[in-house]
Design brief:
The complex is a heterodimer. By secondary structure, chain A is of the alpha/beta class. Chain A has a single domain (21-288), classed as Aldehyde Dehydrogenase, Chain A, domain 1 (3-Layer(aba) Sandwich). Chain A is built from ten helices and twelve strands. Chain A has helices at 53-72, 75-91, 93-104, 108-126, 132-136, 166-178, 192-203, 219-228, 242-252, 274-277; strands spanning 21-23, 26-28, 35-39, 45-49, 138-139, 146-154, 157-161, 182-186, 212-215, 234-236, 258-260, 280-288. In chain A, helix 3 crosses helix 4 (108-126) and helix 4 (108-126) packs parallel to helix 6. Chain B has two domains: 19-271 and 473-489, Aldehyde Dehydrogenase, Chain A, domain 1 (3-Layer(aba) Sandwich), CATH 3.40.605; 276-463, Aldehyde Dehydrogenase, Chain A, domain 2. Helices cover 39% and strands 17% of the residues of chain B. In chain B, helix 3 (93-109) runs antiparallel to helix 5, helix 4 packs antiparallel against helix 7 (203-214) and helix 5 (126-145) packs parallel to helix 6 (175-188). The chains are: A alpha/beta, B alpha/beta. The A-B interface holds A 135, 138, 140-144, 146, 148, 150, 233, 245-246, 248-250, 252-256, 258, 261, 272-274, 281-288 and B 139, 156-157, 250, 253-255, 257-258, 260-262, 264, 269, 271, 426, 441, 445, 450-457, 460, 462, 464-468, 470-475, 477, 479-482, 490.
Chain lengths: 291, 490
């Protein structure tokens, strides 16, 4: 079993995966050298990198650098890269199913269904990249000789406090990058393994380095740093524990961040475009009409 | 303006001479005292306190206005809630629409009265209140009225629902127009409102209350509580308010966002700006100079989207500054009620002090100030149109919002540098681009981190056109279909 390396049943000793952070397109250990242990698929303990404030800052710098590249791609191109994410997860479905089974406490067969749903959700969001403009833009009939239009444009660097489930992580991440934003995914502790495996799919999906950064760690510890960081333009706190939300929103006010919070009971509910629209800014352009 | 200062102005200004042409103030009767507008009638504030509002052009008191405390705010929110539950949210959209259309029509009918009152209380030239503020206020009500029975077409998803009571806090720079920006979409969406006008400019909102009575809007649908910062703070903190809309300073906006943290209550913020107005070497120069003047000297520069940073391509910088000075010398500063006045009074002593302070800082940091030397009236609050050259991006006057008739000029060489300089600010409300090259306009518009980009024009507003900021200029849009979304739940 692919992600169950400690005992394969054949007497062979498995080769374990080192779980690192994913910053600027590279897998790195936390600069702090810290790790924490989380339960692996076969009841073993897996060490996961524990991101520090410095790692957050590195991720923000990488994301900020990447923003022009990612948001500057054509919507068609971005759509293909999101679709490639679906391809990459599909091809790793066994690995994800095992992680989902142990994390979400279901059978591997049920977990496979959730992985398939996640693949389909990447496909759903992939299709939005080049339709968002049709949906959210407008030509405005102003009372004067002006051509006046409004377009949705990406908010910028968005930090996503992710839920623990694969489907939840998929929903918050895919919707954010579909709109052309770059993302810093802050994994929920229990979603660490799924998140780091997802980072591997990102790394093989033609995302430019820094478009998606994945930090594992303790949300409680990172919430203040992430929420108050001036290099971050938007915060999705849907995956944040309710008791941390006030602190997060309060810190976000220091630089007027957009905060999106969706109280989703079940991530299996059909996805909504409101998530994609959560991190777009509407830009209006005026030009006189004349000869 | 006094005759004496008119005389002095003639000596130094190359402006063509005009005989005084004051608009009569007889059309408006200002009451000695204004109470709070709660539940459809004017009521005494619970603590019986009043504050005075003055004419900033003369420093003469105009009226006494009720100071709403927490108790009054609570009464207003309760009245709005009752009106929401019992009347407004149950009324068919087509009926709501007709009430809002009525308001638009009465504003048009009483336009001159509103314009004169606005210029008296705010200090802005009658030419602007008459031609911009008041007609636009009517247009916003007229536009949104038509949405009230078409909400299912606002956007994707099921038929949206109103939120409940909207608490709306507005600034002093466009008092009536900001009231219209706030009330019209909120009412069309089916919400009821508690509006808090700015401390220094409450009168046009109180005249609007009179108009609302004339329109026979059901009691409690719109409530107006006057006061200062504490009144506004009480309103946004009130748990009965489901949606807060604020236009004002970034500092206060941040405080409101913090107040609402974790409450789940909806918020939109329209805050400060430090817009770049970018002029390329191939720009239509005459239009650009007019656009620069309109960008920064419109409404005494009391405009959040004012083009307060002029970025000129190096090769034409000297010419532009020279032409700008010539144009500035013909701007007429003085009596706001005079129909020939271009520049009116600064709205308050506090704002004037801030403009002086930032201008002095500009000079202390090495920038060079120039103003046309027009004489200022002896009484009232005045500041001459001023342009700073030799401004560095790190200077205070290049970074902080002055909110006055003060322009900072900087230069650039390449389009990329123009974008970099324009975006080098915590704000992101608006920007201007002047060039005859279409592809460059779109290239610039794509890269400018601003909610509104005016190309070969500046400071245009329309109810059909979404307006609002990026970054610390706030979030949410006002105007157009987008402006309704912040007043609807899905």
């Amino acid at each position: 079993m692919a992600s169950n390396p400690t005992s394969t049943g054949s007497g062979r000793l498995g080769v374990a995966k080192t779980r690192k952070l994913f910053i600027d397109g590279a897998f790195v250990r936390s600069e702090s050298g810290r790790t924490f242990a989380t339960p692996g698929p076969s009841g073993n303990e897996v060490n996961v990198a524990m991101a520090s404030r410095k790692d957050v800052r590195d991720a923000v710098s990488a994301a900020r650098r990447c923003l022009p590249a990612w948001s500057g791609l054509t919507a068609y191109n971005r759509g293909q890269i999101l679709y490639r994410m679906a391809e990459m997860i599909e091809s790793r479905s066994l690995e994800f199913a095992e992680l989902v089974a142990v994390r979400e406490g279901c059978t591997v067969a049920e977990a496979k269904g959730r992985v398939e749903m996640s693949v389909d959700r990447w496909v759903w969001y992939a299709g939005w990249t080049d339709k968002l403009g049709n949906l959210a833009a407008s030509v405005n009939p102003v009372a004067g000789p002006y051509f006046n239009f409004s377009l949705p444009v990406p908010t910028g660097v968005v930090a996503v406090f992710a839920p623990a489930s694969l489907l939840g992580i998929t929903s918050v991440l895919a919707s954010t990058v579909a709109a052309g934003n770059v993302a810093i995914l802050v994994a929920e502790e229990r979603g660490s393994l799924v998140s780091t495996s997802l980072a591997e799919a990102v790394a093989t999906s033609d995302f430019p380095a820094g478009a998606v950064n994945v930090l594992t760690g303790i949300q409680d510890e990172l919430v203040e740093t992430v929420s108050s960081h001036r290099g971050i333009d938007g915060l999705d706190i849907s995956g944040l524990a309710p008791e941390l939300r006030v602190a997060s929103e309060s810190a976000a006010s220091s630089s007027v961040k957009r905060v999106f919070s969706e109280s989703v009971v079940e991530w299996t509910e059909p996805p909504s475009v409101s998530r994609v629209l959560a991190f777009v800014e509407v830009k209006t352009v005026w030009h006189p009409i004349g000869i | 303006m006094t005759t004496a200062s008119n005389e002095r102005m003639k000596e130094v200004s190359p402006a063509i001479e005009y005989a005084p042409a004051p608009e009569s103030r007889a059309i408006v009767s200002i009451r000695e005292r204004y109470q709070l507008f709660i539940n459809g009638s004017f009521v005494e504030p619970q603590e019986g306190k009043y504050f005075s509002t003055i004419n900033p052009a003369t420093e003469e008191p105009l009226s006494e206005v009720a100071l709403a405390t927490e108790i009054d705010v609570d009464l207003a929110v309760m009245a709005a809630r009752r009106a929401f539950d019992e009347v407004w949210s149950r009324m068919p959209g087509r009926e709501r629409a007709k009430y809002i259309f009525r308001i638009a029509r009465i504003i048009q009918e009483r336009a001159r009265e509103l314009a004169v009152l606005e210029s008296l209380d705010n200090g802005k030239p009658i030419r602007e209140s008459r031609d911009v503020d008041v007609p636009l206020a009517a247009a916003y009500f007229f536009y949104y009225a038509g949405w009230a029975d078409k909400l299912e077409y606002v956007g994707p998803g099921p038929v949206p629902r109103p939120i409940g009571v909207a608490g709306q806090v507005i600034p002093w720079n466009f008092p009536l127009l900001m009231a219209a920006w706030k009330l019209a979409p909120a009412l069309a969406a089916g919400n009821t409102c508690v509006l808090k006008p700015a401390e220094t400019t409450p009168l046009s909102a109180l005249l609007l209350a009179d108009i609302i009575q004339q329109a026979e809007l059901p009691p409690g649908v719109v409530n107006i509580v006057t006061g200062a910062g504490e009144t506004g703070a009480a309103l946004v903190a009130h748990p009965g308010v489901g949606k807060v809309a604020f236009t004002g300073s970034t500092e206060v906006g941040k405080r409101i966002q913090r107040t609402l943290a974790g409450s789940g209550r909806r918020l939109t913020l329209e805050l400060g700006g430090k817009a770049a107005n970018i002029v390329f070497d191939d720009a239509p120069i005459n239009q650009a100079v007019e656009g620069i003047v309109n960008g920064i000297y419109f409404n005494q520069g009391h405009v959040c989207c004012a083009g307060s940073r002029l970025l000129v391509q190096e090769s034409i910088a000297e010419e532009i500054v020279e032409r700008l000075r010539r144009r500035m010398a013909s701007l007429r500063l003085g009596d706001p009620l005079d129909k020939n006045t271009d520049i009116g009074a600064i709205n308050s002593a506090g704002q004037l002090e801030k403009i002086h302070r930032l201008s002095k800082t500009g000079e202390a940091e090495g920038a060079v100030a120039w103003s046309s030397g027009c004489m200022l009236p002896e009484r009232g609050y005045w500041f001459p149109p001023t342009v700073f050259t030799k401004v560095e991006p790190a200077h205070t006057i290049a970074r902080e919002e002055i909110f006055g008739p003060v322009l900072s000029v900087m230069t650039f060489r390449t389009p990329a540098e123009a974008v970099q300089r324009a975006n080098n600010t915590v704000y992101g409300l608006s920007a201007g681009v002047w060039t005859e090259k279409g592809s460059r306009i779109l290239w610039m518009a794509e890269r400018l981190r601003a909610g509104v980009v005016w190309a070969n024009t500046y400071n245009r507003f329309d109810p059909a056109s979404p307006f609002g900021g990026f970054k610390e200029s706030g979030f949410g849009r006002e105007g157009g279909r987008h402006g309704l979304e912040s007043y609807l739940d899905r």
